[in-house]
Amino acid sequence: MPLHYLFIFTLLVTDISCRGFKVENRQRQLFLSRNVVTDSGQFDGGVLVDENGKIAGVYTRESIIDLLSEDEGSLEVIDGGKWALMAGGVDSHVHVNEPGRTTWEGYVTATRAAAAGGFTTIVDMPLNSIPPTTTIENFKIKTSAAKEEAYVDVAFWGGIVPGNEVELQNLVKAGVVGFKGFLIDSGVAEFPNVDTDDLEKIFTTLNGTNVVLAFHAEYPISKAKDDGQCEGCDPHVYDTYLASRPPEMELEAVSLLAKYIPRYDVHVHVVHVSAADVVPILEQAREQRIMGGSTRWRGGVTAETCHHYLTLSSEQIPPGHSEYKCSPPIRNVTNKLKLWEYIRDRRIDLIASDHSPTVAERKTSDLMTAWGGISSVQFGLSLFWTEAKARGYSLRTLSHYLSAGPANLVGLRSRKGALKPGFDADLVFFDPDASFVVTPDIIVYKNKISPYMYRVLNGKVMQTYLRGKLIYTDGEVLENPQGQLLINEDVLKKL
Ligand SMILES: *[C@@H]1O[C@H](CO)[C@@H](O)[C@H](O)[C@H]1NC(C)=O
Ligand SMILES: *[C@@H]1O[C@H](CO)[C@@H](O)[C@H](O)[C@H]1NC(C)=O
Ligand SMILES: [Zn+2]
């Protein structure tokens, strides 16, 4: 269905150059939809966007009629009809890998894929690029690689590795959203995991700050075999890999983190929860925090899970297919259903992709040695909606977990993740009734590998807007990157 431009007066955006600054003279816009999705409900109405690409107001259809009669001619009206109008998605967990492993993924391809998937902000993980984002110097290298390549907004996690406590304060000043560390081998040599001595130093350094400390929570317990060791078992069979990373590894890691939570006033976030049983452990820690008077969002104790844990289960994984490999691993259907119970009861805080691509040569059929990581930055909204719709959830649930939750985590709660006045007009038109098949030719990210290949997904991103500007329509990402790096550039320059 084509868009109806009710008023086609001056749609042209004029660039005026004055004293070296580019000032854009933009028209106000009114986005209309029979299905506007906000925190408080879904209704027939619209979103007014000001000249600076910020949301000026959210209206019901009746109040729009008044608005239109007052402002006749001065508004560009973009009518999505039955397409739902929602806040753009925020993906707080994406490995872009540039520079250093740019054959795996890069800013252009990752952010174009995000735009195609209705995600208007991504947050880049500190590892798998070379160098990793663990020092100010490295952060400069990272951000200069990203500059002018961002088709959506990009924020950055810093990394914690043994001995880099001295870098943390400056990285915060320069605008990282928080730090991520590993409690187990990360899979890449340049990003070693931290041990309990390091943790003590890191928590001490960050105590009382607003910085989020995120962890890959698996702990190497003796029962588990290391990757690559597999005596008398078949490394092509998924259960071999699954058995090498049992739920106890996640439970152990989260129990370790839970010991720090009462002693330090630091927001602790657990990324990519697979084993559902970690949720009650974190809840207990949160409860203690809140009873102790913490006013942080969710008591400063949060957890995310990923599309693959909610969509796939180990029983379905065919032998030799490492496109399903990630760590922690995709577990059985009992575990998946438990995660969905927690989603229903709002006991998990957000959902991210953990988009972690590599080249085909590293996705071998030996599941013990193949690269662990699943690419899905482009398909989050549809993956979640396919499962959620079948379970009777509304688009508000989708928006809660894929926009508001991640925006809250990464300090963008007053700017992104909701349709509210003053927020960036990052918008997506989503057709909840359309469906499509994942095929290599629609994949925009660099390496066209996916466990969802040839699956039918429900719900389709029709158009994506960043600060009111169209960035994706009719299956095409528009040229000219419009994304911004969400960092303190002036501070970074001086450090
Ligand atoms: C962390 O900071 C809080 C106050 O913000 C303080 O009560 C607590 O003792 C500190 N923890 C440690 C281990 O120093
Ligand atoms: C699923 O995995 C858990 C933990 O490994 C196990 O206790 C449970 O029996 C499994 N359920 C099924 C249906 O295989
Ligand atoms: Zn990750």
TrEMBL record:
User: Which stretches are transmembrane?
Assistant: none
- Which NCBIfam families does the record match to this protein? allantoinase
UniProt similarity note: Belongs to the metallo-dependent hydrolases superfamily. Allantoinase family.
This enzyme's EC code(s) = 3.5.2.5
Residues in a coiled coil are none
Top-level class of the enzyme under EC nomenclature: hydrolase
According to UniProt, this protein's pathway is: Nitrogen metabolism; (S)-allantoin degradation; allantoate from (S)-allantoin: step 1/1
Q: Which domain of life is it from?
A: Eukaryota
Which interval of the chain is the signal sequence? 1-18
Q: Which cofactor does it need?
A: Zn(2+)
Keyword Signal among UniProt keywords: yes
This protein's UniProt keywords? Hydrolase, Metal-binding, Signal, Zinc
UniProt name for this protein:
allantoinase
Quaternary structure annotation from Swiss-Prot or TrEMBL: Homotetramer.
- Amidohydrolase-related domain segment(s): 85-470
- Keyword flag Cytoplasm: no
